[in-house]
Fold this protein.
Amino acid sequence: MRRIAALTRNPVAIALLAALAVAGCRSQQQVPNNAADLGLGAGASAATPGSKQEFTVSIGDRIFFDTDSSVIRADAQATLTRQAQWLNKYPSYSITVEGHADERGTREYNLALGARRAAAARDYLTTRGVAANRINTISYGKERPVATCDDISCWSQNRRAVTLLNGAGS
Amino acid sequence: MQKYLNATLALMFLATLAGMAVTPARALVEIDVNKGVVEPLPIAITDFLSGDNMGADISGVVAADLRRSGLFAPIDKAAFIEKISNPDVAPRFEDWKVINAQAIVTGRVTEEPDGRLRAEFRLWDTFAGEQLIGEQFFANKQNWRRVAHIISDAIYKQITGEMGYFDSRIVFVDESGTKQNRIKKLAIMDQDGANLEYLSRANSPNTLVMTPRFSPSPQSREITYMSYESGQPQVYLLQLETGQRELVGDFPGMTFAPRFTPNGDKIVMSLLRDDGNSNIFTMDLRTRSTARLTETNAIDTSPSYSPDGSQIVFTSDRGGRAQIYVMNADGSNQHRISFGDGSYSTPVWSPRGDLIAFTKQSGGEFQIGVMRTDGSGERILTSGYHREGPTWSPNGRVIMYFREDAGSGGPRLYTIDLTGRNEQQVPTPNFASDPAWSPLLQ
């Protein structure tokens, strides 16, 4: 993140980045992970190897956390391990890890909690061989829930870190 | 925004209205706001005389202000016996005693040759049979609501003995769209919800904004807030007069939870570290120099200064869960003050300096409460599905916050008295959150 922030302040570096990006069409601020955007369901089995669809559907683009925790759970470790293997196989992608919190917290604390979750996921990926300079992180706190209801069935889906593929690839 | 400027510049307080009895040595009518349960004071607010609707409009705003405070009970005008025809002479007090009006407000609104509005009012003590205050104001016509709020503040101060809070503004976040793709815009309005203006024009969910706070500078002409407009969530400064925005500091990561120092020379905020923890920093707005105040492997956020600037209250989870801590302004003597069941966050120091308001999560509910600055004397004012983000009225008497009930779809702004009584919704056109109350305007 330090690197990305520094780059965005340097016009020369930005130009260089743009030149390097093959299909650099990641929107500057994408709307994160509407369930409808995930491509889940029909046609999932047809995902092209190395495609964003394969990453999202077959590998799994998100992990979940316990309440007020940024500890990577066992199920999340399995997902992140698959992500790392896939990213190591397709090294042209850079990624953004988004950290999110559920609505059962206050705004500023949850921004910090989301950031801590994103950092935890990033650190896990780097221990599995993904280069740190491929990973950007951002926290959305409780601002972008994927599930909206007033009970735990939704809150548990919102406490998440989502890995988004940025550049290159298809 | 232009309207706001005119309002702040063109209002002129003139003279105390003499003529009737001068300041009384002993008013019979008063409210002791520290008594606990206060019976609202019956008060008759008569329509101010004027050639048009302006007189009734102004007295209507005064009545609404005083009613919302919970300390006054304006009497239904249909019950009035005397019709005021000359506000310069004493009312027929006997007529007002019959309907138990403890105090009477009379007034007159006229237009000056230059087009300005001239508003006069008098506050009368029915049972003492004398005038308590009499004042007149000149203002541009479009500022008539401010004239009404200033009159409300004068009445409130005379009868309660405390400063009022009606001539003040609220900056907040307007929320529209679905929860998954909420559109958030900065908005500003009078404390009663009137004169709403949008400060950001974003119609895209990508441009999230949050936690706006007023500067303490005269007339509160700056706000600091957090925005995703660069892609990276960061703290900004917005000049209300010019609309000019600037990034606060040149930090490598997310900055958030900004507030001004009491004299407005610095902004204190949280900075995300590369390891995922967050610490508290200040940035001097003139020299741009920064200082680190905390350095724990924890989340340290939501800093808020004591009114004398000597201490900072903040949230930290260094002990495992979010709790409230206090430190000196240089970062020394960090110590925990909240020890109740549950977690505590969003502490805000009261303008009087004696209390800290907070959000508490306990037993699956969210609560707004207050405690003394050493953590003792905790009192919960309101509790429910979601309550968050207290902000103090300029006189430290009322707390505004946002509240969402299960299934309601979004938050709304509410006020509650420091006693925990008189919870009232503040009218906003859409869902609303993150309110911040300005100081009294000048």
User: Anything to note?
Assistant: The longest strand of chain A covers residues 135-141. Chain A has a mean pLDDT of 79.
